[in-house]
Design a protein that fits this description.
Blueprint: E1 2-6, H1 13-24, E2 27-30, H2 31-41, H3 44-54, H4 61-72, E3 78-81, H5 87-96, E4 101-106, H6 109-117, E5 119-122, E6 130-132, E7 136-140, E8 143-147, E9 165-166, H7 173-197, E10 202-206, H8 211-223
Parallel strand pairs: 1-3, 1-4, 2-3, 4-10
Antiparallel strand pairs: 5-6, 5-9, 7-8
Helix pairs in contact: 1-8, 2-3, 4-5, 6-7
Length: 226
């Protein structure tokens, strides 16, 4: 199973791709996580992408494409999180592999901002622990959001490895809104490209309920395709 998960920043791509990794045994490939880890290491790749990541801008296509090619070249089952983000990246992806389905997550901008400001991640770069201190209960444009906080069992310590939880450096409101603007401007046309140029099924999910309920919706939709 080869999947892509799309959605604006903060819609839960990392959370849901991690859940699907557990359920279906697919390899999770998150370009944002790869870049942040390389920045922490101070590697050559990290130095190349640091200024883009910290400013909430897209890393140049040629860098991202090479990283993804290397990651998926021997994989039969994966979920791509954060790639492709441009039409050029999408075209290059289709040259090297076949995609079975696309998952598109939907969420209103004001909810995204609140969620991202509440996000806390594990400080251990080898752990994918994700939490959120925001407790959201509101309705926008007829979509009722019930998103309780996702808290660790021990105050600000990861349940998985016990490391302290931190707020990402780029989780600031001005950067969040810029990332949303970039998503609207550059990434959404990628979905239009897939709709126009391919027959890859696209599953649309409103992320307006707790994680387990959304995971159930995604899993049922995927199982109906295969």
């Amino acid at each position: 199973m080869k999947l892509i998960i799309f959605g604006p920043p903060g819609s839960g791509k990392g959370t849901y791709s991690s859940k699907l990794k557990e359920i279906f045994g697919v390899e999770k490939i998150a370009t944002g996580d790869i870049f942040r880890e390389e920045i922490k290491k101070g590697s050559e790749l990290g130095k190349k992408v640091e200024k883009y990541v910290k400013e909430g801008k897209l890393v140049p296509d040629e860098i991202v494409i090479e990283v993804v090619k290397e990651k998926i070249k021997n994989l039969e089952n994966f979920i791509l999180d954060g790639f492709p983000r441009t039409i050029n990246q999408a075209k290059e992806l289709l040259k090297i592999t076949k995609i079975d389905a696309i998952i598109k997550l939907n969420m209103h901008e004001e909810i995204i901002v609140k969620k991202i400001l509440g996000r806390r991640i594990c400080s251990n770069p080898k752990c994918d622990g994700n939490y959120n201190i925001a407790d959201i209960h509101e309705t926008i444009d007829g979509i009722e959001y019930f998103l309780p906080a996702i808290l660790p069992k021990n105050d600000m310590l990861c349940d998985k490895c016990g490391s302290p939880l931190i707020q990402r450096e780029d989780d600031k409101e001005e950067i969040i809104r810029e990332r949303i603007r970039i998503y609207e401007e550059q990434t959404k046309p990628v979905l239009e490209f897939f709709k126009r140029e391919t027959k890859i099924p696209i599953i649309e999910i409103w992320v307006n309920r707790p994680v387990d309920e959304i995971v159930d919706r995604i899993v049922k939709s995927l199982k109906s395709l295969f």
